[in-house]
Amino acid sequence: MSYSTKATTSGGRNGRAVLDNGGLALAMALPKEIGGNGEGHNPEQLFALGWSACFGQAILVLAKKHGLDGQAAKVTCDVTLNINDGAFSLAAELKVALPGADKAKLQALIEDAHTICPYSKATKGNVPVKLTAV
Q1: Is the pTM of this model over 0.70?
Q2: Residue 70, burial from CB neighbour count under 10 angstroms (0-12, 13-18, 19+)
Q3: Listed residue (5, 37, 1) closest to 19, CA to CA
Q4: Which of 67, 111, 120, 133 lies at a CB distance of 3.0 to 4.6 Å from 106, suitable for a disulfide?
């Protein structure tokens, strides 16, 4: 089984992004921190949303294996856009909170989830990622 989706953007970071099925259309804008007006969304926000949801699913799939109930897990994905001498790069931190969970078990679950999450696989070796149990 596989799944595919498509989005089209015009105007770059100050344009409009639309899913092919019309289910979502967003105004895009440079963040204020890098000279934009911030009156829209940016690729880093969308990446953080997607990665946190995808990673949350990996947590759900693997939680029982680690003796945890992943239903109450909350995943936060912090994405940073670094700009150094005109070169751009990303960094990320995935933080997982699971009330009542043993921190060592939760950390092991997070590290395991990082091996199966498609976003984690896609960024492996390209984006520095910190994995944190909170």
Answers
A1: yes
A2: buried
A3: 5
A4: 133
Q: Output the six-digit token pair for 64.
A: 């029982």
Distance CA 105, CA 84 (A): 37
CA 44 to chain centre: 8
36-60 pLDDT per residue, tens:
999 999 999 999 999 999 999 999 9
Which are the contacts of 70, defined by CB distance < 8 A and separation ≥ 6? Answer: 59, 60, 62, 63, 64, 98, 109
Helix (H) or strand (E) holding 133: strand 129-133
Categorize the per-residue pLDDT at 86 as very low, low, confident or very high, splitting at 50, 70 and 90.
confident
Q: Which domains does the chain have, with CATH numbers?
A: 1-41 (2.20.25.10), 43-133 (3.30.300.20)
